[in-house]
Design a protein that fits this description.
This protein is an alpha/beta fold. It is built from 19 helices and 14 strands. It binds adenosine-5'-triphosphate. GO terms for molecular function: ATP binding; sequence-specific DNA binding.
């Protein structure tokens, strides 16, 4: 089973568990570091001497809680955390995932399952391949980002949770001249407000009790790259003022210093909140600055063309690294996916497929594999007219053909055995959008 290798840190106080994870990960070809104390982990994760691709972290530790370690180490949120939680810690683990951890696995687990989670976590931060989707909406996003790529101005990415805001920000980084410089991701909701200032701007030695040495913040460490401020809507008002000043002046002060540090990175922010609305308490002047170049990522339900396209990409990635019998998605499961409203967007789609691939016994995924909770309702006979049933089937078949041809309308029409004009007419009638005016 091919897999990614990387630099992995383990934070586990149990000597037997720690030793066995260390041995196994080393055997798999990873470079492994093992800490038994939270304080040790925080120190090494934040002093900038070593960079890790993944931290595998126990939630219960003798000196501090794994959540605390994650918060403190979120000074380097670019490092993904995979949590190992006991059954009673699941709520906490889920909360941590919402705050930026990549994944969690419940103890006790078997080693194969653990290694799969590690591979998936390592891959979760992989660079996008250059295409964000086949829907008109996502192609527009891609075009807009390509247009924005060469500017130094801030970009504001808005969209529901899980729509792919961070994926889009990383895409922007990859297609820009800043590619060779860092992409520093900061989850503003994951770092307590009073800590965020010194995390962003750094602090001088002796700036406050406990500031034993000079600390360079994210703004400095981003160099000439991208400073990605996720969940910007959660930033405290006092810090909003400082961010505004940084954008206007082009420099900032480390906490406890009068000296000016030039800011050379580009700011890209993301939020699922409507921070520009009248009802929002977010500073209007900052909003206008940040949203100079706005991008809106539509929810998945508004771009059904991307559902199967994403599903097949996710499944292929899962099949590459997982020992699964699954080789594809059955037609009924595809129908069910096209009918689902995807409140958790692309993240929900990925999670459902991961679970389905892990649990399914068959080669083709069935609706029950992907939607175990609604399968009864799905199987219940629904009474509809023949005309409605025919239209629904036609719509699904068109979406399948578009997914299989990466949104190429001429090719999709050929596959469907109809003319391009007929396909256009049907797509318009069914409210399906696609890119294709130009020679598609
Ligand atoms: N266009 C895409 N191509 C490939 N993977 C995607 C795409 N969009 C989203 N994903 C996957 O869906 C998941 C969620 O994406 P991402 O973290 O970018 O969303 P988000 O909008 O930033 O979420 P949040 O609001 O919770 O921060 C990730 O696993 C990501 O890899």
């Amino acid at each position: 089973m091919p897999h990614e290798t990387g630099r992995i840190a383990i934070l586990e106080d149990d000597p037997i568990m720690g030793e066995s994870l260390h041995q196994r990960l080393s055997l798999e070809g990873h470079t492994v570091k093992w800490w038994t104390k939270g304080e040790q982990a925080v120190r090494e994760l934040t002093d900038g001497t070593d960079a890790f691709d993944l931290v595998v972290c126990d939630i219960r530790l003798p000196d501090m809680n794994g959540e605390e370690v994650f918060r403190k180490a979120s000074r380097d949120t670019a490092t993904p955390f995979l949590f190992m939680s006991g059954y009673g810690d699941i709520d906490q683990a889920v909360r941590l995932m919402r705050n930026g951890a990549v994944d969690f696995i419940t103890k006790p687990f078997d080693m194969t399952a653990f290694l799969e989670r590690v591979s998936l976590s390592l891959r979760s931060k992989e660079q996008p391949e250059g295409t964000l989707g086949i829907s008109l909406a996502m192609r527009n996003v891609e075009q807009v980002l390509r247009r924005y790529a060469s500017h130094p101005l801030p970009v504001l990415i808005q969209g529901e949770t899980g729509t792919g805001k961070e994926v889009s920000a990383r895409f922007l980084h990859q297609i820009s001249a800043r590619k060779a410089s860092p992409f520093i991701a900061v989850n503003c909701a994951a770092i307590p407000g009073d800590l965020l200032e010194s995390e962003l701007f750094g602090h001088e030695k002796g700036a406050f009790t406990g500031a034993h040495q000079l600390h360079r913040g994210y703004a400095e460490r981003a160099g000439e790259g991208i400073l990605f401020l996720d969940e910007i809507g959660d930033m405290q008002p006092t810090l909003q003022v400082k961010l505004l000043r940084l954008i206007e002046d082009g420099y900032f002060h480390r906490v406890g210093s009068e000296g000016q540090v030039p800011f050379r990175a580009r700011i890209v922010c993301a939020t699922h909140q409507d921070i520009g609305s009248d009802g929002s308490s977010f500073r209007k002047d900052l909003f206008f600055r940040l949203s100079t170049l706005p991008v809106r990522i539509a929810p998945l339900r508004e771009r059904p063309e991307d559902i199967l396209w994403l599903a097949h990409r996710f499944l292929e990635a899962i099949m590459e690294i997982r020992d699964t019998r699954v080789r594809g998605i059955g037609a009924l499961a595809e129908d069910a996916m096209l009918e689902h409203s995807w409140p958790g967007n692309a993240r929900e789609l990925r999670n459902r497929l991961e679970r389905a691939a892990a649990l399914s016994e068959s080669m083709l995924l069935m609706p029950a594999d992907i939607f175990p909770e609604i399968v009864t309702a799905y199987n219940a006979p629904r009474m509809e007219t023949l005309a409605d049933a025919r239209e629904a089937a036609e719509r699904r078949q068109i979406l399948r053909a578009l997914s299989a041809t990466n949104g190429q309308i001429l090719q999709a029409a050929r596959r469907l055995g109809i003319s391009r004009t007929t396909l256009w007419e049907k797509m318009t009638r069914f409210g399906i959008e696609a890119s294709g005016c130009s020679g598609n």
